[in-house]
Amino acid sequence: MAKKMLGVLYGSRSCEHEVSIISALQLMRAADREKYDVTPVYITQNGEWYTGEKLLSLETYNQFDPYRSGLKRVSLDLTAGSGALLHYSQGKGLFRGLTEEVVARIDCFIPVFHGMHGEDGSMQGLLELANVPYTSTGITGSAIGMDKITMKRFFRGMGYPTLPGVSALRSGYEKAPEAVLDQTEKELSYPVIVKPAALGSSIGVGWAENRAQLKEALDLAFQYDRRVLIEKGLDHPIEINCSVLGFDGETETSALEMPLSSGEVLDFAQKYLGGSSSSKGMASMGRILNPDIGENTSQRIRELSRDIFTALDCKGVVRIDYMIDRKTDEVYITEINTIPGSLSFYLWDKKGVSYARLIDRMVELAEQAQREKDQNNFAYRSEILHSVRLGGTKGKLKTGKL
Ligand SMILES: Nc1ncnc2c1ncn2[C@@H]1O[C@H](COP(=O)(O)OP(=O)(O)O)[C@@H](O)[C@H]1O
Ligand SMILES: [Mg+2]
To answer: Which ligand has its closest atom nearest to the C-alpha of 230?
Structure first.
């Protein structure tokens, strides 16, 4: 059987650019080369797309040089169903124009971005337009999962357990900072945690036990986003993460993990540089796999995770994070990561699913989703163009009540 061509997309204009490189390199190394040819598609901090074998080695990124031999600038052909990566070069001769070369034709894209411009629905929108299979959650679930304010409203609306929180806009804070502080203090008691709405990896996150610290945390968070979530802080919560794999009502949960943060808010460096090797990303972080938190709580977290996965119409592999309040044993959802660090492969490994097999499943699910999409009718025809006269009164478009 012919090998499938996988296009691994990563990097991009995101604060988590480097973490994405690590996740993508891990994935490309794990993919079964008997089944797949793998094309790396690296998006730089400036938003330029490159491909080439050199991208498979970590050194290439130390001081990324786009002019290095073996790298080719590419763009995605957005023609529905094409899947082509195109390279344009200046032709030679009298009538030289731009020459277009198809560098690769991708059967399935694997987005391995973390954060903005990749995990947030924007890349998913591009891939939907291009009408090619891709392994991550779709536009809506990705967008809700990236926005901590909308995510909280969604979870709350679904009746899932979330901590109380308030949101604030940078423009409002700049005009009247005291009013934002007053409002927060009215709604929440200290401690609180302040998070930029659309970031990840704890970037811009701050802890506040009083008004002065709250102001400091808001100043920091607003450097990263114009919208900020302020949430009730839990004292040394027990953190539990659960990965879910599936699509379209079929879901499977992974082993659970307890990140070894000793209850502290893990910052970026602790998350990714704390382990034995900084090249291992999320997989290197200290953790207890399948921690003993009691069968009931484990079961509840697994059930919640599958429900959330389905509610957001997720696809492929996601990770949902929880906090348990030590005082009350209450379980709260922290967030969903629709493209988790290291794709959570280590949680599946623990369950006996190798990374290669996990990638197989992701590709199968992407293809299943594409088949489902292809069943939809995108060419509904009506007589509307025949009966309408623009600007005229006859046959005006009528609007109806919803
Ligand atoms: N309400 C909270 N109380 C205490 N610690 C929290 C709370 N919310 C988050 N944290 C800590 O901060 C970390 C980052 O928060 P999270 O919402 O997961 O944002 P990010 O997208 O940056 O990972 C969590 O992993 C957890 O350690
Ligand atoms: Mg998190």
So the answer is: 1
